[in-house]
């Protein structure tokens, strides 16, 4: 009798484990969102390291192995992962996660995007025709994407639909609770020079001016003449310079030396095992840095 009960218990535990959705997120920020919304009802695997530019990853066998078992892919979208995610999905031979299927989710497709061009024009640099994909720098858009993700998960796992929706609502409420502190940090901020158009959503959300970009056009390394032009344009002004951990330091350091502005080297992603609180801390790290210098 004890053996039978033990066997039944093992079957129940095994069934519960198998019932968890297998979610693959392209980046740590998307992994955080998936983990926050899905909670205990999904196992989340992340493809991209936290300190790498997700534009330029190489397809690896372990990516395809993870995608082969996935029930759902959670990507940034708007072609951020265009160089590696489509071939990785193709190599995984998993019909559930093909674009257009229920198992394929793009966060950027759930919100309004900045800088939508409609067509790719290489003269504009490394542009994304659908719009700027870096929505994870805007907590409000991330909350909107989280609510859309909850609905997708609910459609795949009706038994836990209420839990997904409750988790998404809780995340959105946490964003609302953090907004006053972020707004206070950035009130009267002089503005920032960014390396790329990564943090445009953050700057726009809090009405902080972007004073320039170290890249002359997106994806193109800065030239000496472009950096000198920035110095001439920004002399006698206040501001900060911000670049990501994987972006070259030479241009930001040159501007810092010439203008006397502080320079900050910041992450764009949370850690692989991050929670929502870690994401809020990341946003606070950015707002604290950008708010260092006030308008005169």
Automatic annotation (TrEMBL):
Database matches in InterPro entries: Bact_metal-bind_prot9, ZnuA-like
N-terminal signal peptide: 1-19
GO terms, molecular function: metal ion binding
UniProt GO BP: metal ion transport
Keywords per UniProt: Signal
UniProt-recorded name of the protein: Zinc ABC transporter substrate-binding protein
């Amino acid at each position: 009798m004890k053996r039978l009960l033990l066997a039944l218990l093992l079957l129940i535990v095994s069934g519960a484990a198998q019932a968890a959705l297998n979610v693959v997120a392209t980046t740590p920020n998307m992994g955080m969102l998936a983990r926050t919304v899905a909670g205990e009802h999904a196992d989340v695997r992340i493809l991209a390291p936290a300190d790498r530019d997700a534009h330029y990853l190489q397809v690896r066998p372990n990516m395809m192995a993870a995608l082969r078992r996935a029930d759902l892919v959670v990507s940034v979208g708007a072609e951020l992962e265009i160089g590696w995610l489509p071939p990785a999905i193709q190599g995984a031979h998993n019909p559930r996660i093909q674009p257009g299927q229920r198992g394929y989710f793009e966060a950027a497709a759930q919100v309004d995007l900045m800088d939508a061009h409609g067509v790719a024009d290489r003269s504009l640099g490394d542009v994304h025709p659908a719009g700027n994909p870096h929505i994870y720098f805007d907590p409000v858009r991330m909350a909107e994407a989280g609510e859309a993700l909850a609905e997708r998960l609910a459609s795949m796992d009706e038994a836990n639909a209420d839990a997904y929706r409750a988790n998404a609502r809780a995340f959105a409420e946490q964003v609302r609770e953090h907004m006053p502190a972020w707004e206070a940090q950035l009130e009267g901020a002089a503005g920032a020079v960014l390396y790329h158009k990564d943090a445009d959503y953050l700057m726009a959300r809090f009405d902080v001016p972007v004073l320039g970009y170290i890249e002359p056009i997106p994806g193109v390394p800065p030239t000496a003449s472009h950096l000198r032009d920035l110095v001439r344009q920004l002399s006698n002004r206040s501001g900060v310079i911000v670049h990501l951990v994987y972006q070259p330091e030479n241009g930001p350091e040159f501007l810092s030396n010439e203008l006397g502005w502080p320079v900050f080297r910041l992450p764009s992603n949370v850690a692989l095992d991050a929670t929502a609180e870690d994401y809020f801390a990341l946003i606070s790290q950015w707002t604290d840095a950008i708010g260092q210098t006030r308008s005169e």
